[in-house]
Amino acid sequence: MNGRPDGSALVTGASRGIGAAIAKALARDGWPVGVNYRKDAEGAEAVVAEITGAGGRALALQGDVADPETAERLFGTLEGEFGPVLVLVNNAGVRADALSPQIADEDWQKVIDTNLSAAFRLTRRALRPMIRARYGRVVNIASIVGQRANPGQANYAASKAGLVALTKTVAAEVAKRGVTVNAVAPGLIETEMTDGVGEKLLEHVPARRAGTPDEVAECVRFLTTDGAAYVTGVCLTVDGGLTA
Amino acid sequence: MSTTATREQIEQRVFEALEEFGAEPEEIGPDAEFEALDVDSLDLVELAQIVEDEYGVQLKGEDMEGVRTVRQAVDLVVSKLP
How many CA atoms lie within 13 A of B6 on its CB side? Predict the structure, then answer.
């Protein structure tokens, strides 16, 4: 524990894929974890069961982060159960891919709301208690698509690039209170969300394989540790060299 | 959270917070200006969180606009006591 304050971690979109791997990694580090999900209650409960089975503490928390009311409810529940939220991982994300001329307003808005606006609202809610605690770790899950063009994902790319800009700005605002804000940008990772988009990309990946959710989770876990206290405002790319 | 806090108690709490933020104790007083105390905007955000946690008073960004002195901040909190 290295003397870090008692508190909890909240991971959004944690019922499967990268979010589930992050929740489990943080639990292994001793954090009680709020496992947020929107629809997949079964998946979230499985993550909770795995964590508690290994001796950790976790709680499944239903809530659509795109709904502005959700942040307060998630934080209130988690604070009541496990104490102040000192680690926030904004992982929940959606895709609605199409070439730009064919992106409908609602598909633009849905992606921006979930991937960017929700992360802002959750971060805003998280920061004041973190500032008082003189400790906090916010990690935003971005994407290499925010840095490198991928036709068909203008809405997703804009949301993820926005997330990196949010990360850097907030990091500078709160650094003197011991709160770090970083981003992790996965490349091609084996999850349900990337089903069907990977095959043609794989030949461009120097590592010649897709990454795993655990490999992303390990980077997130590092950024939440005391050892990463001086790392803030960065975007750590985890892509097997794709953007190198 | 107390609903019976007096003006004096709130002022004392604000003084303590300012000292914690790094202001020189001998310079802290009702008429001291935050800028002169080297209290910055992030400190004021934390001060807002302290009064919310301890007195149930919610201060929004626009409430804090124009607040330059310790006395003005204490007046603002007192005016919003539940």
Answer: 3
